[in-house]
Design a protein that fits this description.
With 129 residues, the protein is of the alpha+beta class. It has four helices and five strands, in the order αααβββββα.
Length: 129
């Protein structure tokens, strides 16, 4: 299976991008005593999330999802979608950092699902596309 590039995940996933910015900002302004621990925690959380997302793509299962909602707010998008895995329906949302997204409500797209935690799924179009 293909795994998305580390920085592609960081700059696609909203939470990874936010944690990356916090970690970098804290590292730049480490003059203040409290920013160093905040930067370290943010960096650890970001690396854990990036690893989790990459593992879903490398060990996960591809299924088709239906986009049910698309909402924009200042450079980030919330895409909600439904999919089925092992005859169970799931609904999930991903925050995506992009200026524009071509997927629309009602579109079908590929997602990768974590077989151990089927509620974890990520849109292929943004991480591998």
């Amino acid at each position: 299976m293909k795994r998305p590039d580390f920085f592609r995940v960081v700059f696609t996933d909203f939470w990874c991008c936010t944690l990356f910015c916090v970690a970098i900002t804290g590292a730049i302004f480490c003059v203040l005593v409290f920013t160093v621990p905040v930067s370290v925690v943010a960096a650890v959380l970001m690396f854990r999330r990036v690893t989790m997302i990459r593992d879903v793509f490398s060990k996960g299962v591809s299924v088709t999802a239906l986009i049910t909602r698309k909402k924009s707010a200042q450079g980030e998008w919330l895409l909600r979608y439904t999919y089925q895995y092992n005859d169970v329906a799931y609904e999930r949302g991903n925050y995506i950092v992009r200026n524009w997204i071509k997927l629309n409500r009602g579109d079908r797209t590929e997602v990768f699902v974590n077989p151990q935690k089927p509620q974890e799924a990520f849109l292929t179009a943004f991480y591998l596309g």
